[in-house]
UniProtKB/TrEMBL annotation:
Keyword NAD set for record: no
Region listing for Disordered, in residue ranges: 410-430, 458-496
Record's protein name: S41 family peptidase
GO biological process: proteolysis; signal transduction
Organism: Parvibium lacunae
The family this protein is said to belong to: Belongs to the peptidase S41A family.
Gene Ontology CC terms: outer membrane-bounded periplasmic space
Amino acid sequence: MSSPTLRRPFRDLALIGASLSAGVLISLGIGAWAQKDTRAPLPLEEIRQLTDVFGLIKQSYVEPVEDKKLITDAINGMVSELDPHSSYLDEKSYKELKTSISGKFGGLGIEVSMENKVVKVVSPIEGTPAFRAGIRAGDYIIRVDGAQVRGMSLQQAVDKMRGEPGTKVKLGVLRKGEEKPLEFELTRDIIKVVSVRSKLIEPGFGYVRITQFTEPTTADLARELGKLYKDGELKGLVLDLRNNPGGVLQGAVGVSAAFLPRNVLVVSSKGQLQQAQTKSYARVEDYLTREDGNLFPSDPLKNLPPAVKKVPLVILVNSGSASASEIVSGALQDYDRAKILGTPSFGKGSVQQIIPLDDKDKVAIKLTISRYYTPKDRSIQAKGINPDFYVEETPDGELFANPLREADLDGHLSNDKVTEDKKQESEKFVRNPKRTKAIEFGTAEDYQLQQALNHLKGQPVKLSTKADNTESEGAGASGTAKDKPSDKAATPDKKK
């Protein structure tokens, strides 16, 4: 499943090996209760119509059709028509989803984007085949095993570079300063996706970027925070969740728990079944999966520096921040633990459950089972997180106008906290005509990051002029804002 937010060039980004379905919050390990018998009486007349159509196709269609295909297509249609995030997962799709959740895959270790219909290397992952072979950021991949990449979609190019560990692939690469294309032969290997990266932007100010939420994300965050604090405490921290499409629920709870007091409520969910009505707290049993049925693995957050709980924090979001990203942003915003800066998030406020359909765990359905709510019982569905500081990508506006959001998707779930479900239009962003290239996050040219640093230093934040159809939850619609960094700790929510 491709992300609706991938219309923008910077969002056409993937890892060679596997990619997480964007905008999806997946709840793991809850398949057992889904098999309980909660069925209502079967609608016999409609079932009869279905069998009649099945028989007509078998007898009258121009070519023979296998029974399995007809049944599979019927399931696919039945599930996919429910909402944009429910779907049937065939063997290939299900395998890729499980791979992306685990954070490991077989591939080359290259983060890529599509630029001018050519695959561009954003970054090779350190220690991977691509890194060892000398692939560099900024290289253009023009051929894969002799096939021209121009004309392919990003996904098609990624598929050609994927493969089993130990197999070889040849890449033709254009590099600035080289007169002729370079040829590389790489051997695919098991790649571990590191979803969290960090750096010290300047003395006393740290930057952490989370690209997606996988099972190892909580441990990865703890490791990166440890690196930032090895030379002393920080004056401020920026958590970058822009273009983060979501991922697993445990990852979102774990990241929230790193900055909140133990046992505060992080997120709740409500669905048709009693078992879908859950609450997740900032505690190890809610962000780690049990091992051997009883024991929890070692808590990766137990050795975090205590200062992490109170360091002034700004979270960056945009219309590509979805699902798990919105859980983290919403929780920390509700507790006034962080200020949110950027543009309104995607608005994906539902939870999908993966339900295997066979004993061999090869095919499954991804079914929306509940809506989720922030600690203050706000629903994000089809609305998103509104930033405290509304700041667009550049001083002159957004690079690309009218990003697609949850409210724009046909068949999206309504927001049950809104009395009248009106279709919300995307922000009326003004495209910046001065730039033709996407901005690299975390660099000196990253305007939103610079404004986040201004806030952390107690300096004015230059706000963008907001579209008429968006609400302000923070500093206002335009001009500048000066607000002292908040180091207010959250008050624990007592469990019942």
